[in-house]
Amino acid sequence: MNPVDFGRHSDDYAEHRPGFPDSFYRRIDAFMPVRGARALDLATGPGIMALELAARGAAVAGIDVAPEQIAAAERLAQVRDLADATRFHVARAEETGFDNESFDLVTAGQCWHWFDGEAAMAEALRVLRPAGILVIAHYSYLAQHSPVARDTEELVLRFNPSWNMAGESGVYPQRIDDAIRGGFERVEAFCYQQDERFSHAAWRGRMRTCNGVGSGGLSPEEVPRFDEALGRLLAEKYPDPVDVEHRVWCVVARKPL
Fold it and tell me: What pTM, to 2 d.p., does this model score?
């Protein structure tokens, strides 16, 4: 398996990777009002969560290890007229470079499993103000409930038999104990499911961002062959567009006073 590099398909991330639904942000707003908050988005990618927080009135910093993702986030911030409410730079979740107690809210969307969890938790605790909120969230397609996702994962495994993230449940209860051990309190979790609609082109773009495909699983020469095979599978079996069941899983934890 090739090294994971999420910068390889930043354009696909920006265009085709679905963000969390509006209902997710309403739930976060119940824990802490987003409007007026100072927020830090870890592993921001092309700013998917950061830009939504900014659109809801937060002042947001987003960091990512991939310069290509940061460039995409800055471009999208300009397109959405959110550049004044956001700032992006290259940094690791384990070492953000921000001052102590700089933020009211720290978010990590669909990324915590790539971190050194203990170090990232300590860094989140450091940069949050007392009573600040940490949000660790996942938005995962469910192959066990969606035939198109199941068939797609089987195709990924034909191209990349060493891929070890097929069949994910989208539920990560270990994050609860991670937050408690990391010094947070009032730790809560919520989970619910929702369909996402994809055109065939969008689903192909979304799968090019998969860590088993374009973000490291396959060589640059193999990715187009996989993409063409997925296009044939979709055309043969599934009307355009397709609905793919997703699961929101989220842990919310508060820094002690």
Answer: 0.95
pLDDT 10s digits, 151-186: 999 999 999 999 999 999 999 999 999 999 999 999
The position carrying tokens 């396959």 is 218
Domains in the chain: ranges and CATH: 6-254 (3.40.50.150)
CB-CB contact of 38 with 6 (8 Å): no
Find the farthest-apart pair of alpha carbons in the chain and give their distance in angstroms, rounded: 58
Question: Tokens 């374009």 — which residue?
Answer: 214
In three-state secondary structure terms, 41 is: strand
3-state helix, strand, coil split of the chain in percent (to 5) is 40, 25, 35
Let me know: does 12 contact 205? Beta carbons within 8 Å. yes
Whole-number Å distance between alpha carbons of 248 and 50: 17
Contact predicate 139/110, CB 8 Å: yes
